[in-house]
Amino acid sequence: LVRAKATPNALRLAAMSRKPAETSDAVRDALQRLHRLEVEKDQLLSSLQDELATMANLYIATYQLHSTLDLSRVVRHLRELLGQFVGAEAFAFYLHDVEAADLAPVFCDGIELDKLPRLALTQSIDPKASDRPLSATWIERAYATGEMFVREMDLAYANFDAPVACIPMRIEDRVMGVVVVYLMLAHKQHLLPIDRELFKMLGAHAAPALTAALLYNASKGASSSLLAFENLESPVSARTIPPGRLRK
Amino acid sequence: MSAIEYNCLVVEDSPMMRQLLVFALSRVKHLKVTEADDGVDGLRKLAAGKFDIILTDINMPIMDGLKLVKRVRNDPTHKDTPIIIITTEGSEEDRQRAMQLGANAYITKPIQAPQVIAKVRELLKIDAS
Lengths: 248, 129
Description:
A: alpha+beta, B: alpha/beta, 19% strand
């Protein structure tokens, strides 16, 4: 950017004070330098625009998520975040059910909730058992390790058994559940850096928002357990994916 | 302070997406954005003022975006107002249906803010500089 201060006028004056051969070389060099600076400026501007778009997405998603203590609104915001900001078509939120010692699906989009299994959190399960969905292993792994799992693959091959991402939801060091993204919208072919940032944001902010809403529910005399999710209204946007797109 | 030259109506039921669109559009100079949260609210706001461009989602409660496009095209005040559809529906069939009803542009979600800004500028014939 400092070099950009060598304005075209200054370069032109410097070139005029030289001999013809030198002048044409100097002009050519100056024009090349100018062109390089233009390219550099465009790249810088483009990367600044990308950064700004990422920051805006993250700020707005976080702001909306924590703007309410109403459980149904928190759930709505989480659905919108995945559906509209990331472009996920089928996803589920699993929370740790302390009493049942398992992971329970509490809400989802693109699939029917009662078709999602509860996942037992015991050491006795053989992860290689042939009748065990691979997705269950990944969900449990994300829960046990607290590490986000994102498949590096063509998104068109994602399905119920091979989800796009499993994102542990944390409150500080404690993992409270897992977000599973099974399928992306058909026109979304690649995950972008911003999607990974949104996944990280979800990992850090979804559990505090859900827990605060459940505690607020309890303060009003309603349930603070996972049963609270059963009383939520059906989402307006909920739809089911055609069977061919969710292979099991 | 700059004078407002263009009025834009954003019809979107998702508060999160609406806020993102309003933020993106704030980078278009001289553009005032009015928000509506479904098709009926959109029609109400259209009846109360003159808009230069409309951005609308398709899937919304009460009245969806395609019905809104139809109604706008039959409204003498706004029949020529450019309409941009912003939706998660990405099939060619959906796109064609919207364009046949009178939409001027079709953008799929997740949105890229520069793409939305560029389309708004193009339809309003605003110079990017």
